[in-house]
């Protein structure tokens, strides 16, 4: 249910980025797919996007990045400004000290352009292959995060759980950043929001546009704040990121047409991986209808339209949540690469300026110049006439001197 809540936090410059699971059909070369994602991060950097988040998955074919750290290390060499986050590191599958060391090294290699996104692990198939009980993922995440935040602060940690042991463990190289940003993934359950509050971390709402995730936005932040108060931590909406799948073009018709490339592939993937939870559809029109109304589970309800439609969509998310610091577009490859790049270009040209107020002084400046145009043009023409007269006077003076 949409709630017109007051926007209690509205930054002067809302940050924009992309969240890469990523999704590539199983007919595409994985080498090509990874290279294409690296190219897209470069494009986002060129278009002045702020963030790119890179996922970790180990099954299902479509989400084909196993190590966000390896991807980020390469992407950092090809970009100048964009910050990159693990989106997310699945804490349940990693020995905490080893993961902390990898993140710290990556922070040095990128000169502090890293954000450490953490989660329990999303795909049950991944957990099954590693012999991890899916019901234990969130508990494991909590145990891991508890020691990770201490290690990253330079503390010495001794801890024993039923899946890892640390004996006087400490990092010999701390992160490049003094305060490496830790961000906790939150979907529909309250566990992510609780952990974010407990450790004073940022929050990454990966299911913000799904019906249940959208309805839970305001409650998620309330839970986060409540836990922060309980643990004497501080949380800031500036570090809250919301994710939604979108595709825009110059017209709604063009946006729909662009999805002929790959939206049916997306539905096929979700149906195969999620079984009866996700509907089978007969054609593109039905796929767009399902995606833009009921959505695809945690993948969310898609926005297919124009820059103006996206502005309205983000405003609804702001009102539902009360405000956040970053909007992330879910990278889905439902459109071909050129149409995808065009979608991000339109965000940069028309949507970002609306929420970043970068043109606030430009329009008044034009209006001021317009209101004074007659006076300014008269002075301009007067200057030209004066120059002609000075030139003529100089010639006349030379003639008189010569005569």
Automatic annotation (TrEMBL):
Per UniProt, the keywords (alphabetical) are: Flavoprotein, Monooxygenase, Oxidoreductase
**Which GO cellular component terms are attached?**
cytosol
**Coiled-coil zones:** none
A molecular function (GO) term? monooxygenase activity
Is Membrane among this UniProt entry's keywords? no
Quick check: keyword Oxidoreductase in the entry?
Answer: yes
SUPFAM superfamilies reported in the protein's UniProt record? Bacterial luciferase-like
Q: Per the database record, which ranges form the Luciferase-like domain?
A: 19-318
Give the matching Pfam families.
Bac_luciferase
- Quote the PANTHER family the UniProt record gives: BLL0895 PROTEIN, LUCIFERASE-LIKE MONOOXYGENASE
Family membership: Belongs to the bacterial luciferase oxidoreductase family.
Q: What is this protein called?
A: LLM class flavin-dependent oxidoreductase
**What is the scientific name of the source organism?**
Parahaliea aestuarii
């Amino acid at each position: 249910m949409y709630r017109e809540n007051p926007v209690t936090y509205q930054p002067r410059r809302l940050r924009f980025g992309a969240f890469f699971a990523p999704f590539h059909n199983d007919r595409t070369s994985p080498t090509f797919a990874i290279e294409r994602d690296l190219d897209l991060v470069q494009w986002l950097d060129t278009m002045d996007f702020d963030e790119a988040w890179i996922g970790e998955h180990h099954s299902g074919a479509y989400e084909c990045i196993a190590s966000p750290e390896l991807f980020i290390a390469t992407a950092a060499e090809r970009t100048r400004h964009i910050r990159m986050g693990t989106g997310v590191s699945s804490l349940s599958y990693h020995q905490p000290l080893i993961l902390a060391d990898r993140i710290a090294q990556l922070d040095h290699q990128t000169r502090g352009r890293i954000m450490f996104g953490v989660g329990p692990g999303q795909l049950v198939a991944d957990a099954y292959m590693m012999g991890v009980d899916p019901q234990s993922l969130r508990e494991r995440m909590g145990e891991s995060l508890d020691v990770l935040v201490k290690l990253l602060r330079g503390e010495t940690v001794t801890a024993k759980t039923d899946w890892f042991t640390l004996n006087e463990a400490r990092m010999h190289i701390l992160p490049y950043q003094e305060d490496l940003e830790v961000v906790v993934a939150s979907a529909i359950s309250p566990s992510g929001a609780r952990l974010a509050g407990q450790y004073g971390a940022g929050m990454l709402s990966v299911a913000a546009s799904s019906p249940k995730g959208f309805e839970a936005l305001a409650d998620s932040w309330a839970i986060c704040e409540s836990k922060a108060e309980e643990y004497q931590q501080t949380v800031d909406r500036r570090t809250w990121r919301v994710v939604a799948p979108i595709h825009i073009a110059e017209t709604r018709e063009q946006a729909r047409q662009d999805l002929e490339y790959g939206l049916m592939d997306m539905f096929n993937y979700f149906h195969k991986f999620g079984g009866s939870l996700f509907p089978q559809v007969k054609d593109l029109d039905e796929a767009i209808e399902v995606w833009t109304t009921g959505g695809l589970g945690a993948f969310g309800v898609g926005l297919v339209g124009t820059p103006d439609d996206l502005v309205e969509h983000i405003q609804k998310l702001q009102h539902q949540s009360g405000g956040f610091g970053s909007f992330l577009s879910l990278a889905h490859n439902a459109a071909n690469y050129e149409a995808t790049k065009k979608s991000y270009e339109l965000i940069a040209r028309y949507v970002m300026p609306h929420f970043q107020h970068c043109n606030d002084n430009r329009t008044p400046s034009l209006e001021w110049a317009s209101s004074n145009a007659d006076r300014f043009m008269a002075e301009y023409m007067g200057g030209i006439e004066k120059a002609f007269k000075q030139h003529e006077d100089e010639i006349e003076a030379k003639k008189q001197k010569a005569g």
